[in-house]
Amino acid sequence: MVTGGTGFVGSYLTRRLVDDGYQVTVLDNNTRGKSNRLNSVIQQINYVEGDVTDYDQVNQVTKGIDTVFHLAFINGTDNFYNFPEKVLEVGVKGALNTLDACLENNVENYVLTSSSEVYQQPVNIPTTEDERLIIPDIKNPRFSYSGGKMISELLTLHYPAKSPLKTYICRPHNFYGPDMGVGHVIPQIINRLMVVKNENHGSRFDFPIQGTGEETRAFCYIDDAVDGILQMTKSGEPGELYHIGTQEEVTVRDLVLEIANQMELEINIVEGVLLEGSTKRRCPDITKISALGYTPQYNLKDGLRPTIKWYVDQHLSKPKRKEDSSEILR
């Protein structure tokens, strides 16, 4: 079963599981997901429109399941600030309900998708799974997401500890790819470049960014991400945590320039103010997952090509208000 199966990562995972011959149940309420992401496999899966905060529903669909991939969570920076109570409710109740259902129905494996956000400002880079977790300001609703992920990890590790349930936790690092939504840095850059290109009729133009551009991330293409999740589930040690990502650390400036280059645009990057709570540098150490046989196949340039093509083809760009001219860096 895949909770959050109509979301970005969940839909790719679901399609891969179907391609690999598994019978898959998807549970999602489509608050942020899109059921049409599963159109190619909808006749081959058991699709249930439901909510992970409803225990009776979760328990019912978990019957007969041997592995639960729990991805359902409320993402999106705007949601963190505006609806922290819902972010926490879905995070905590979702983990507790899916774990209880697994215990009730004798499920063999439970796989939690956490987040690299649990580190906030990591001390050591590349960052290992042993890095300390932190909430810098408990009064800032922006940290409702990472706080919910921390609680989910604690529940996954300790709540079923005396049961036969095997648990695995992955911490994704900046997954990206076609159809990932619009509220993330890469699609926002692509969409804004399309808008500004049309406004400037192909001439060189200024392009504002959030921060100085020296902030870094290591982006992981979605096909590699799914490979990592499945490799961890197949070969990982129960009760362990694994980073899934790449160690190709890139500055935001170089990311923007690469996207612009692939779109055949000439731009002047204009520095801006970094949003409070943003992490200046993030790059995982993937030694642990690599020891299981995980090897990313896509470098950033290769992964950006199909991603850019998808967004350009979909014509998803919309004019931004002036105050929204900088991308969200997470």
From TrEMBL:
Domain NAD-dependent epimerase/dehydratase: from-to ranges: 1-245
InterPro entries per the UniProt record, alphabetical: Epimerase_deHydtase, NAD(P)-bd_dom_sf
Family as reported in the entry's similarity comment: Belongs to the NAD(P)-dependent epimerase/dehydratase family.
Name of this chain's protein: NAD-dependent epimerase/dehydratase domain-containing protein
